[in-house]
Specification:
The protein is built from nine helices and nine strands. By secondary structure, it is of the alpha/beta class. It has one domain: Phosphatidylinositol (PI) phosphodiesterase (TIM Barrel), CATH 3.20.20. The chain has an eight-stranded parallel barrel with strand order 1-2-4-5-6-7-8-9, surrounded by seven helices. Helix 5 links the parallel strand 5 and strand 6. Helix 1 packs parallel to helix 3. It is globular, with a radius of gyration of 17 Å. The two termini are 14 Å apart. The structure holds SN-glycerol-3-phosphate and magnesium ion (MG).
Length: 246
C-alpha cells in the first residue's frame, strides 16, 4: 500500500454534502482531499451499496432496514434531500458507481465493510469481488476495514493483497494476536479512547494507527504528535488546509 494520506474524508465530506453519496466524494476531491472512507452494505437481494446505517430512515427517504429492502426499492430512494434541497436527487450509490467516480476523481479509498447480522463474510466476498474487478491494479490499493473480525478474515482470503485494518472502539487486549492472524496493516480506533502509549505500542510493532472521527484541529494535531498515521474526519477540507492532504 502506498502510504495512506493522513486526512481521510469520513463518508466523503459529510458536513458539506450528504454522507456516502457521489456528491460527498466530489466535494472531498474539490477540497483537495486525497482519500475518502465509505461504508458498504448489502440490500436484501445482495447488491453492494454505499450506506452507513442499518436503517434507511436517517439518510434517505426510505424506511426500515436496508438489509430487508430490495435493490429495486433502494435505487428509487433519495439520499440527498434530507441534507438539503440542493442535493435532492442524490442516489444511494452502488459500489460500482462509487468506484467509477473515485477513479475518475483520482481519489484513494478506504472501504469499510459494515457489520450486518451474519452476512459479514458474504458482504466481504461480494464487495471485494466487485472492487477488485473495478479498481485497476495500477491505482493505489484501497484499505479494507471492518469492526467485524469475520469480515476482515474474509477480506484476507478474497483480496489477500489489499491492506486490511481492524476497527474498534477501544483497543482490544489481544490486538497483537489479531494483527498477526488477520495480517493487518492498521489498527483503526476511536480517537476518544486512544492513548499515546497505545499509539506508540502499535506503531512500534509495525502497524499503522488511524483514528476516527476527529473534527477538532487541536485534537488532530495531538494525535499526529503521538504518531497517529491518519485521521478520519467530517471536515476534510478544513483539515487539509491545516495539515496538508498527504
Ligand atoms: O472507519 C472509521 C469510521 O467510519 C468507523 O465508524 O460508524 O462512522 O462507520 P462509522
Ligand atoms: Mg465508516
Amino acid at each position: 500500500m502506498e502510504r495512506i494520506p493522513r486526512i481521510i474524508g469520513h463518508r466523503g465530506s459529510p458536513r458539506a454534502a450528504p454522507e456516502n453519496t457521489l456528491a460527498s466524494f466530489r466535494r472531498a476531491a474539490a477540497d483537495g482531499v486525497k482519500c475518502v472512507e465509505f461504508d458498504s452494505a448489502l440490500t436484501a437481494d445482495r447488491r453492494a451499496v454505499i450506506f452507513h446505517d442499518d436503517e434507511l430512515d436517517r439518510t434517505s427517504d426510505g424506511a426500515g432496514l436496508l438489509a430487508e429492502a430490495t435493490f429495486e426499492t433502494v435505487v428509487t430512494l433519495d439520499a440527498g434531500n434530507w441534507f438539503g434541497p440542493a442535493f435532492a436527487g442524490e442516489i444511494i450509490p452502488t459500489l460500482e458507481e462509487a468506484l467509477e467516480l473515485l477513479g475518475a476523481l483520482g481519489l484513494q479509498f478506504n472501504m469499510e465493510l459494515k457489520t450486518d447480522q451474519g452476512r459479514e463474510a458474504e458482504l466481504a466476498r461480494i464487495a471485494l469481488t466487485i472492487a477488485m474487478d473495478c479498481w485497476p491494479d495500477a491505482r493505489p490499493a484501497p484499505l479494507v476495514t471492518s469492526f467485524s473480525q469475520t469480515a476482515v478474515a474474509a477480506a484476507k482470503d478474497i483480496a489477500p493483497k489489499w491492506p486490511r485494518g481492524l476497527l474498534f472502539d477501544r483497543l482490544p487486549e489481544d490486538w497483537t494476536g489479531l494483527a498477526k492472524t488477520l495480517e493487518l496493516k492498521s489498527l483503526n480506533g476511536s480517537h476518544q479512547h486512544l492513548t499515546r502509549e497505545q499509539v506508540m505500542a502499535v506503531r512500534g510493532a509495525g502497524y499503522a494507527v488511524m483514528a476516527y472521527t476527529v473534527n477538532e484541529p487541536a485534537r488532530a494535531e495531538l494525535l499526529f504528535d503521538w504518531g497517529v498515521d491518519a485521521i478520519f474526519t467530517d471536515i476534510p477540507g478544513e483539515m487539509v488546509k491545516i495539515f496538508g492532504a498527504s
